[in-house]
């Protein structure tokens, strides 16, 4: 698809969750290479390896840390142009009757509730920037099309389907923002495992591409490999 991009992100501020490893760490690296000021967020910020980022403690299941992180960005930079909701967990596998309640709660709170609450707090800064971008790192496991929601990993699939729905609804509520979801594919990370076919560089490629969107580009959509895919 032909889209209009920012060639440089100089002067722009980004917040990336789950930035201490995997896709989040690579997204952080690539955004820094585009000259963005990046706040790399993690539950344990001392684990963030990208020295050129600003680290903040942020646990998406803990609203107090969310509030503090946004306040820090507001005080230090006074703006937020890009939010990458990347932090996520896979949870346990099996039929619903075998899954611990705690695991279901953790998966939904991390993958769906957390991004919603973080975005709600971040809107105080995002809404002030025309064409600010929100990129929700989702999954094909949450697609209704094709084979449907991943039944083998029910809480994970449901959480990503919810994240997709959140993306579409938020784009309708805030037409001045560019809100998109992305399936990065099966990536060699702690979650994806060593047998996954994709590198973290490839997994981060489309999220960063979406983070470079200019006003007027598509919003409220789901992407994979820089192509629109069905919900």
UniProtKB/TrEMBL annotation:
GO MF, any single term: oxidoreductase activity
Transmembrane segments: none
Boundaries of every Ketoreductase domain copy: 12-189
Source species, domain of life: Archaea
Pfam entry (one): adh_short
Keywords, comma-separated and alphabetical: NADP, Oxidoreductase
Gene Ontology cellular-component terms listed: cytoplasm
Family statement: Belongs to the short-chain dehydrogenases/reductases (SDR) family.
Protein name, entry field: Ketoreductase domain-containing protein
Source species: Haladaptatus litoreus
